[in-house]
Amino acid sequence: MKWFKKKTNETPALQPTPVSTTQPTAVHHSDWRAYDDVADDYARAVAPHFAPIAADLVAFAEIPAGGRLLDIGTGTGTVLKAAQDLDAFGVDPSPVMLRHAKGLNVAAAETINLPFRTDTFHVATAQFVLPLFTKLDTALFDIIRVLRPGGVLAVATWEAGEDELTKIWRELTERAVGEEMMRDEMRELEPQAAVAENKDRLEQALRDAGLHPVRVERRKYKLEMSRDDYLTEKTTHPRARFVRSMLRAEWPQFLENARAMYAATFPDNLVDFRDVLFAVGTKP
Predict the structure, then answer these.
(1) Nearest-angstrom CA–CA distance, 130 and 116
(2) Whole-model pTM?
């Protein structure tokens, strides 16, 4: 789904049609791959836990005073909130997610067709969205296009890895739809995961896109959350949305079984350690 067509050079630099955060927006349920149906859960139980990572991403980008920032896949606006003292704008393909970005400058738009002039922003950020791009090189091309010469792209991605928490969820979802089907579907749902979740491949992808120099760092985060919030986070992921689309009426029973499994294994409040890759590259 395309929310905007390419703007011509006559179009003002920052005038895509904004999404209202006060009036109701129609919800489209036709495509389970979209985040529309899980936007409320994501805003309530997931986004607040990622605020420290968003703040570190903004700091990592080293945005110059008076610089303009564009946040790609902004969702509920976590990065924009961390950059509230800056001239920051966010885009996301889901208007329903953007309803939760109240008071922020946002618009519905696809990454591969950004509605901005070339050389507009000093910095672009992308938090946990790179794995979702169908064609990473195409997405990076348009992001870099709207950066000014000397501007930077700063991204944050989860590094690949599995602990007991994620292992149980993976096994539950694979058991529900079949291991082979789940594996094949995840390759389609997160086509760039193998690149985005690997330090060396991520660095090379940014270099191949024409950014130089490129710097990648690994940081570990200690996320404390309730067991219920953890499971809610899992249900917002592409893996769970696919399982839900397959199980349909049996989805509530799947969730009940998952809650019982986690309750029998983990305490009410969890400490979840996760590795995040931060990468920054400069446009020549």
Answers:
(1) 20
(2) 0.89
